């Protein structure tokens, strides 16, 4: 274990940010985009049967924890990971690790983190942060989406770690126990790219990948039957919230993956990846335009200059753009 002072780096997304910061502390410098790409973090899913705060869930990234597992496996990092039956056991284990000078990754609910502005505090249970010390009964927190380190009181942290709902964090804590001194990134990059292409293009279920974007587009078109209906506004609002407010958001994940491809093009000496990075950035812009237009529809709550049909068409354009991109990426020769 490294005994050096923990270096906080602000990142775009919590899970890939925690990976970058924890591994960096152990001497393995890996950027956030590289962690996101090797972990094949880019994804899409619309889950009408999984309700988040009572409305269907939409995700623009792979499920929580998967990036971490994939990065560790591909880079040969061994992690200690635990969940707990009671808050008392969870906080005791955290205190023990922190007393030993080990920075610890935690899964938490955003709702109970008092350092977030009130407007950002809602019931989202898959937020990752690092606790790297304790001072005068306050835990020292490196939350990768914040620009600087902060503190949290034991009661709030315990509530955040043991929040009810889906997914229940159950006090999950994790930290590296073996980090190789040197790693080769070529094979992990190639495996990460192949896996991302598979998940975006070949998952047979209609709710996932490029098919999932089209699936959502059709559902949004159906919202038009009652455009002033509170349920339509609520559902549309949640799509935007999942895209723009939780962690990095949909467009942000596209920009993050584009940054990964830029880095990968240098490591693999492959100009094609750099060109594709530019194309994905344009797709990110399409998602941003959709969120902006959808936000206007939500705010007006009545007739708007943008219709649900037009929003559906914008999503179909996003789907076509992503399909073209991933088909080209899947054909890159290494």
Automatic annotation (TrEMBL):
Pfam families reported for this sequence: BtrH_N, DUF4872
Superkingdom of this protein's organism: Bacteria
Organism: Chitinophaga polysaccharea
Residue ranges annotated for the Butirosin biosynthesis protein H N-terminal domain, each copy included: 13-144
Name of the molecule in the record: Butirosin biosynthesis protein H-like
DUF4872 domain span: 155-329
